[in-house]
Automatic annotation (TrEMBL):
Protein name from the UniProt record: Branched-chain amino acid transporter AzlC
UniProt subcellular location: Cell membrane
Pfam families: AzlC (PF03591)
Highest taxon, organism lineage: Bacteria
Family of this protein: Belongs to the AzlC family.
Length: 235
């Protein structure tokens, strides 16, 4: 039974997540459509979304699988796309790291861009919240989004073939990430990393199996770290 304060933070998190549903639904449906177009069954598409629950890496892995890339390249690329989750985890640890193991495991499973963005902002504002209240807000911010991600994947996989041929809906993917990431680019290090990532991703498009993405990701992280180090020394 949830205490009134935890119930209150849970509902606050749920309300805060509502604007993101406008992106999650078409994004998940698009993955279901693309997965079926690439030969996956409905069950396989659903398993992909439930186990991985990370849209960008799912699309990247699916494309490489379609190109016949070696399994190691698929795994490395998907991991590179999701490296930001490691940074999210580090940021969440001071707030949620004292929770029991099973709760931390669940926190890690539903750690997505939106839950990190909402949680980090709320925990910075509400410094007096207890661990239980923080957990309530965090799970409230993600429960609807995860449910809609699964449902949208199923809808896309099951009914995507009914859409008119040639309907351009793949623009949803870059628009979704631009809308989420742009407000988070606040420091010079973040901006420098983003610019390097974009520039190298475009410049290295010719590399086989989209491996240019791996190079771009590593160079972007190195750039961000170098800029932060430089700023720290000159502060």
């Amino acid at each position: 039974m949830l205490s009134p304060s935890v119930r209150s933070t849970f509902l606050r998190g749920l309300r805060a997540s509502l604007p993101f549903t406008a992106m999650i639904v078409p994004f998940g449906a698009l993955f279901g459509i693309v997965a079926r177009a690439h030969g996956l069954s409905i069950l396989e598409a659903m398993a992909f979304s439930i186990v991985v629950i990370a849209g960008a890496s799912q699309f990247a892995a699916l494309q490489l699988m379609q190109e016949g890339a070696p399994l190691l390249i698929v795994i490395l690329t998907a991991t590179a796309v999701n490296l930001r989750m490691a940074m999210y985890s580090v940021a969440m640890a001071p707030h949620l790291g004292r929770a029991p193991l099973w709760q931390r495991a669940l926190v890690a499973y539903v750690l997505i861009d939106q839950s990190y963005l909402l949680g980090a902002a709320a925990f910075e504002r509400e410094r007096g919240w207890s661990l239980a209240e923080k957990l309530g807000y965090y799970f409230g911010s993600v429960v609807l989004l995860c449910g809609l991600w699964y449902l949208a994947t199923w809808v896309g996989a099951a009914f995507g073939a009914l859409l008119p041929q040639g309907l351009a809906i793949d623009f949803i993917v870059p628009v979704t990430f631009l809308a989420m990431i742009s407000p988070m680019l606040l420091t010079r290090a973040q901006m420098a990393a983003a610019l390097v990532s974009i520039g190298l991703s475009l410049a290295l498009w010719w590399m086989p199996y989209s491996s240019g993405l791996l190079v771009a990701a590593l160079c972007a992280m190195a750039t961000g770290a170098a800029v932060e180090t430089w700023e720290g020394r000159n502060a």
